[in-house]
Amino acid sequence: MKNIINIANLLSFSRVILSVPLWYSLLEINKDSAASSVNYFLILCLIIAITDLLDGYAARYFNSVTDIGKFLDPVADKICALVLILFLSIKFGWYYLSLLVLVLIRDLIISVVSVYFARTTGKYLQANIFGKWFLFFIAMSMILSVVLTPDIIREQYIYLSTLNSIFYILSWVFFFLATYRYFSMYYLLFKGDNV
């Protein structure tokens, strides 16, 4: 139990809990929303980002890197990202829906294969660097899409739409790089090579 309950894992798990108020904050944002609704959403995003930065630091500082932590950290990240993608898919349709479908299929495959290797070899595979960059760019794109939802903000900060498009394109690039890295690693493990 000591290996499971530590500061790093609690920080990761807090992101799972924070995904609930994140969802409700998103439901409050529409084209007629005031800036205060967007500010509440941004504060939640900031807290989520801080817990994401601190959990890895805490695991190393307190020498409490655990297999459950290696599994929980990317799962917590993906739950928050999927909350945003799901909301934006409902609001904007295919622009984010295609990404939602691909992320869900890929993550389902990765989860099944990860559990298989955890049970058969005892190896827990961590998220790769491309996956972290994908999450960063898609998170920035999604956050900007939400921020730009109210008319009052979209009309005042026109340049944010261009920045949003750049982040969205980069998220696709890193999605494919991360997916390639994951499946290359699994291929080597299936062959019996050490990774």
Write the layout of secondary structure elements.
Layout: H1 7-27, H2 35-61, H3 67-92, H4 94-121, H5 129-147, H6 151-156, H7 159-191
Helix pairs in contact: 1-2, 1-3, 2-3, 3-4, 3-5, 4-7, 5-7
Can you characterise this structure?
- This protein has 195 residues and is mainly α.
- It is 82% helix and 0% strand.
- The mean pLDDT is 85.
- It contains seven helices and no strands.
Mean pLDDT: 85
Number of helices: 7
User: Which band does the percent of strand residues land in?
Assistant: under 5%
Number of domains: 1
Question: What are the low-pLDDT stretches, counting only 5+ consecutive residues below 50?
Answer: none
- Work out the helicity level: over 70%
- CA-CA gap between termini: 28 Å
Secondary-structure-based class equals mainly alpha
Provide the CATH top-level class.
Answer: Mainly Alpha
The coarse silhouette is globular
Order of helices and strands: HHHHHHH
- Give the biggest beta sheet: none
Measured on Cα atoms, how large is the radius of gyration?
18 Å
CATH topology: Four Helix Bundle (Hemerythrin (Met), subunit A)
Indicate the CATH architecture: Up-down Bundle
Number of E-type strands: 0
